[in-house]
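Try this one yourself first.
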């Protein structure tokens, strides 16, 4: 293993943050795997999983078991990690701009289509390398005037030529679940099985404010659509892994999750060995079929359903209790599916999102993710 230190743009005189990436295996040999933790810096399970991955990968490398390259970024957001106000971590949005750390990544397809179009051939492998080179060159030309811009650019430069990208997040209180773009459903299924995911949520984003994983997986299917006379592989399976909830931070779970990722890499033939995939814990469902549960009025939230619980239409997920008026309003499941996430607080403002159920039938349109 060797460590690289990346200096971010200084936001103020006398202040500069750094990002550290850990590199295992040999660059340019075999598949490249990129894994980062806690891009939302208040989502801590990924950092502990990264700690355990570091140990496992070090041993595998020392034993000559790595067939490819693994880049691990154990703290993907030093900016958000430093946004502590009265001992509360504010790691989802940058305080300077108000922007979500996991939005506004580049639409590579639009950025490089004119560059790559005349260079493509009927060789898919050649086209893959042309597209990756164009992404690297485009990133090298982008101004990084702000600290946030330099963070996004650094993470993209580390990840843009990877075959697999795993972005480790968590929800408030949740069961293990995975997000992926629709064209990569087959590639992500073994990962969902090794992790024991209770929900696999797919979508094909048309959002102008791309998430980290969408920017990296989306370039390939978008260029396929626009340059359909040339074979373009789905060369980057990028997925967001939601490692349960914010308080699910312990060595036992983290080590098991790290081992599950290693098992997936064995299945991908990035690591020497054999592994049998566990039975899938769920069927993949459209993100557009996910029911978001809202509080109808302010009050105390009393949950009836636990994360990972299978619900049917009409089941009571929670009661919203107004202590002043004694009003008790049940919040009901409107789709059949797994309650894959719920809120961590127990006081609801009117209209607050208090949970999500993974339904099998798409019914929503427009943006599917929160800001």
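Now uncover the answer:
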């Amino acid at each position: 293993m060797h460590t690289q230190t990346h200096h971010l743009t200084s936001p103020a005189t006398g202040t500069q943050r750094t990002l550290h990436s850990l590199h295992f295996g040999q660059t340019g040999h075999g598949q490249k795997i990129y894994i980062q933790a806690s891009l939302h810096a208040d989502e801590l399970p990924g950092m502990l999983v990264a700690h355990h991955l570091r140990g496992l990968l070090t041993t595998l490398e020392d034993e000559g078991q790595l067939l490819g390259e693994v880049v691990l970024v154990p703290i993907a957001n030093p900016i958000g990690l430093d946004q502590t106000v009265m001992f509360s971590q504010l790691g989802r949005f940058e305080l300077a701009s108000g922007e979500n750390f996991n939005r506004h990544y580049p639409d590579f397809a639009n950025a490089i289509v004119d560059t790559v179009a005349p260079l493509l051939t009927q060789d898919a492998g050649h086209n893959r390398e042309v597209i990756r080179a164009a992404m690297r060159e485009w990133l090298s030309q982008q101004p990084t005037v702000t600290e946030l811009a330099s963070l996004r650019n650094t993470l993209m430069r580390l990840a843009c030529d990877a075959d697999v990208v795993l972005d480790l997040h968590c929800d408030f209180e949740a069961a293990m679940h995975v997000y992926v773009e629709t064209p990569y459903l087959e590639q992500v299924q073994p990962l969902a099985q090794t992790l024991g995911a209770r929900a696999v949520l797919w979508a094909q984003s048309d959002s102008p404010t791309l998430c980290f994983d969408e920017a990296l997986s989306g370039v390939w299917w978008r260029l396929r659509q626009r340059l359909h006379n040339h074979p373009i592989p789905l060369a980057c399976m990028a997925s967001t892994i939601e490692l349960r909830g914010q308080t699910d931070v312990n060595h036992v779970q983290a080590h098991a999750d790290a081992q599950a990722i290693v098992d997936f890499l064995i299945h991908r033939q990035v690591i020497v060995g054999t592994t049998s995939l566990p039975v899938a814990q769920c069927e993949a469902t459209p993100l557009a079929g996910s029911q978001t549960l809202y509080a109808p009025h302010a009050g105390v939230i009393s949950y009836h359903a636990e994360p990972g619980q299978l619900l049917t239409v009409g089941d009571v997920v929670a009661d919203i209790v107004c202590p002043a008026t004694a009003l008790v309003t049940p919040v009901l499941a409107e789709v059949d599916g797994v309650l894959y996430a719920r809120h961590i607080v127990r006081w609801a403002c009117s209209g607050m999102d208090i949970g999500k159920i993974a339904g099998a039938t798409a019914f929503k349109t427009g943006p599917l993710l929160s800001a």
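Discussion: Helices lie at 45-62, 78-81, 108-116, 124-140, 147-159, 185-195, 212-226, 251-267. The first strand starts at residue 2 and ends at 7.
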